[in-house]
Design goal:
By secondary structure, the chain is of the alpha+beta class. The protein is 36% helix and 34% strand. The protein is built from 3 helices and 5 strands. Strands 1-2-3-4-5 form a 5-stranded mixed β-sheet, with helices on both faces. Strand 4 and strand 5 form a beta hairpin. The longest helix is centred in the first third of the chain and has 18 residues. The N and C termini lie close together (8 Å).
Length: 129
């Protein structure tokens, strides 16, 4: 499979989500618990007329057997996973977690947002499999 790194998946929706992240950070600022950023983002997604689910459960299976459950912070428009973290850097663990979400859901795009003391940062993670 050939992959063009210049292709942006869901550009309008992605930009709208990123805009919401900055709006929330600009209004709340640093220092809040992740759950408060999550609640503020839910308010903004609703106000932006976006269809979303939060704390979306998905099953983890191994060799056809259920071994656990995990939760996506947000699934926006049934297309983009939005995962929130608090802290000043993207950890390898967080990136691996989001890549696992992409793998298990089969979705193509996730946005990992980091609420830091200096602002909000984000990275887009692609499922190119």
């Amino acid at each position: 499979m050939s992959f063009n790194k210049n292709i942006i998946l869901y550009p309008g929706l992605s930009y709208q989500i990123v805009g919401i992240l900055f709006q929330v950070y600009n209004e709340l600022g640093p220092g809040y618990k992740e759950k408060f950023y999550e609640r503020a983002i839910a308010v903004s997604l609703t106000k932006g007329s976006l269809i979303y689910k939060n704390q979306v459960p998905y099953k983890i299976t191994f060799q056809g057997r259920f071994i656990g459950i995990n939760y996506l912070d947000f699934l926006v428009e049934n297309k983009i996973i939005l995962e929130l973290k608090k802290g000043d850097y993207f950890s390898k663990k967080s990136i691996e977690q989001v890549n696992a979400y992409l793998k298990v859901t089969g979705l193509k795009l996730a946005i990992l947002a980091q609420f830091t003391s200096q602002g909000v940062r984000f990275i887009r993670l692609l499922n190119i499999r």
